[in-house]
Amino acid sequence: MKVITVSGYKPMEMGLFQIDDPKIDYVKETIKRRLLPLIEEGVEWVLISGNMGVEIWTGEIIIDLKNEYDVKLGIFPPFLNQENRWPEKQQEQYRMLTEGADFFKPLYNKEYEGPYQFQARDQWLLEKSDACLLLYDEETGGSPGYFLEKAKQYQENHDYQIYYITPFDIDDTVREMMMEDPNYWSE
Q1: Which architecture, in CATH terms, is 3-179?
Q2: Radius of gyration of the chain, Cα coordinates, nearest whole angstrom
Q3: Family assignment (predicted)?
């Protein structure tokens, strides 16, 4: 496996409304812990569309990991200026991420026109990757469910792996990080 697509929830779907919410650190650490073994096993490219939340956090993780690992980040938004309606802080976060990416190219060289652009994005990401990693909870549902359904359909006719990060994985990371803190054991 050389190329993986990562997607998942937007911040508001996870109850995260501030760009500096400390809970984001736990989510990012969980994503990192899930990606590292895949990178160590040969993943060379991580693809995202640059959505707020899991995708932007993944991009930030990959940019940090590039100092230690031979991994590249590709960002492929479905259309031009997808960030225009986002809050200013997220727009800045997105701009910084696109500047640090190894490759950036909107799939449609025009502004938003309709849902077909999102459907084409999902199909393109599936065809260009060997697997996907999704932060998703089947019981909660939400926007990543559309990509997951398309990935499951794609998997029927292709050798394609679907990896998950669940809320339980994040809870495990929180516990592990708390126990890694020396102060945890001295109380």
Answers
A1: 3-Layer(aba) Sandwich (3.40)
A2: 16
A3: Belongs to the UPF0398 family.
